């Protein structure tokens, strides 16, 4: 052991650290580095200059999304094994077919300004993006239906909610939120098209992830979907009804908005291809005023 090269000793040492887990994605994640021994990273990931001349390295800190999910799953390792036993499943046959449902949450944390002002000049509001593992299910090789082996008992508790990204930014600052959460969205999208291979209970198992954005309040949904703020005539984040229409018809509403459609409307807003007046244009895009950057799925928590 003593006469091994330094880098071998270093990597052996790393594996003894808490929170260190080796994992693999199949196929490899697009646009995400392959190294898995990643710590806390700069949330602006590569943006050297920042809009308001704030020191860029102070703006945000975050974990890489896949690394955070691996850590969360390893924390639940005993629960997963217990769930398999309770369901009478032989853990040695359940190595694939695991499905993990993740709830995402994002909200402003209000005023966090320094009282004595000795640190670097940063915005005085903060936003936290976090996630909760809601359920884990498995479909055994010869079975039709998936069996739930873990369900979060307190999904709205502070204890089950894991912070992913902390940022100094006002939640109404669409541009900065886009810059910081854009890479998070890219990582999430990459994970949807791949499977995580991770050792749980001494065996390599494969997991698929599904993400539900049910932890955003209305203000955040409007911000992430590029909609006008809550005072808008267009009262709903899921359909195009105006206040007047909604007051006349309180029952018959259908979900008509989609993320892709909002993107198209933003382009119309930006280019004004029909050379319309501001009012006509606004009526055409139905309250889309910025480029949406995060797809929030309309599901109930």
From TrEMBL:
List residues of the V(D)J recombination-activating protein 1 DNA-binding domain.
Answer: 1-23
Q: Which domain of life is it from?
A: Eukaryota
Gene Ontology MF: a single term: protein homodimerization activity
**A single GO BP annotation from the record?**
chromatin organization
Pfam families (alphabetical): RAG1_DNA-bd, RAG1_pre-RNase_H, RAG1_RNase_H, RAG1_ZnC2
User: Where is each V(D)J recombination-activating protein 1 ZnC2 domain found?
Assistant: 234-296
Q: One GO cellular component term, please give it.
A: nucleus
PANTHER family in UniProt: V(D)J RECOMBINATION-ACTIVATING PROTEIN 1, VDJ RECOMBINATION ACTIVATING PROTEIN 1 RAG1
Name of the protein this chain belongs to: RAG-1
State the organism's lineage: Eukaryota, Metazoa, Chordata, Craniata, Vertebrata
């Amino acid at each position: 052991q003593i006469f091994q090269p330094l880098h071998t000793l270093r990597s052996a040492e790393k594996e003894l650290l808490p929170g260190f887990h080796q994992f693999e994605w199949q196929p490899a994640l697009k646009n995400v580095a392959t190294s898995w021994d990643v710590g806390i990273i700069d949330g602006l990931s590569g943006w050297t200059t920042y809009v308001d001349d704030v020191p860029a390295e102070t703006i945000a800190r975050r974990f890489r999304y896949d690394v955070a999910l691996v850590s969360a799953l390893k924390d639940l390792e005993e629960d997963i094994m217990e769930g398999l036993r309770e369901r009478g499943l032989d853990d040695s046959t359940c190595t694939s077919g695991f499905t993990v449902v993740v709830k995402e949450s994002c909200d402003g944390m209000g005023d966090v300004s320094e009282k004595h002002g000795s640190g670097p000049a940063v915005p005085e509001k903060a936003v936290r993006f976090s996630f909760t593992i809601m359920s884990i299910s498995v479909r055994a090789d010869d079975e039709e239906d998936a069996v739930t082996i873990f369900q979060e008992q307190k999904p709205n508790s502070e204890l089950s909610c894991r912070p992913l990204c902390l940022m100094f930014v006002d939640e109404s600052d669409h541009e900065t939120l886009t810059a910081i959460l854009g890479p998070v969205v890219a990582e999430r999208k990459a994970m949807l098209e791949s499977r995580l291979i991770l050792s749980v209970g001494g065996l390599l198992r494969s997991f698929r992830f599904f993400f539900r954005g049910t932890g955003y309040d209305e203000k955040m949904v409007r911000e992430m979907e590029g909609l006008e703020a809550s005072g808008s005539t267009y009262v709903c984040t899921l359909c195009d009804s105006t206040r007047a229409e909604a007051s006349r018809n309180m029952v018959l509403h259908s979900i008509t908005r989609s993320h892709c459609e909002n993107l198209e409307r933003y382009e119309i807003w930006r280019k004004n291809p029909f050379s319309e007046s501001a009012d006509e244009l606004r009526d055409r895009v139905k309250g889309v005023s910025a480029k949406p950057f995060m797809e929030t799925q309309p599901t109930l928590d």
